[in-house]
Amino acid sequence: MQQQLRNFMTSNVYKVTDMQSVQEAAALMSEHNIGSLPVVDQNGTMVGIITDRDITLRTTAQGEAAQTPVSQVMTAQQVVQGTPEMDAHEAAQLMAQQQIRRLPIVENGQIVGMVALGDLAVDNQLGNEAGQALSNISNPSDPQK
């Protein structure tokens, strides 16, 4: 039975614009206890993603100021995305292959949801795949800068 991501995704997605500061992004993450934010342009089109790890490695560790624009720290190229119609099994495999824990869900260029590995793990039918994805995600990889 095919299970679409729209059944698992969080649809109330917090996001930042590419012109907001890293400090603003970090404050939003802290306030809502989340580890990543989709980055949108002024039209609301997703242009990247910023994670707590991006902030740590690309700003704090480099001694950069907190007022650095998100656009200088975010991952912009080849952001892995899903669609609301994507099958949950396919999403789990994609997350494992790409070693990501959170998958932005995009429709017509607009962010409509987020699926975390934990969202998939709570479903009995997907628990094993989520565990396998976590195992693959946890394997060391070369850090991307």
From TrEMBL:
Identify the residues that the record assigns to the CBS domain, covering every copy. 9-66, 74-130
Give the matching InterPro entries.
CBS_dom (IPR000644), CBS_dom_sf (IPR046342), Diverse_CBS-Domain (IPR051257)
SUPFAM superfamilies, A to Z: CBS-domain pair
SMART domains xrefs:
CBS
Keywords of this protein's UniProt record, alphabetized?
CBS domain
Q: What is this protein called?
A: Hypoxic response protein 1
Tell me what gene encodes this. Answer: hrp1
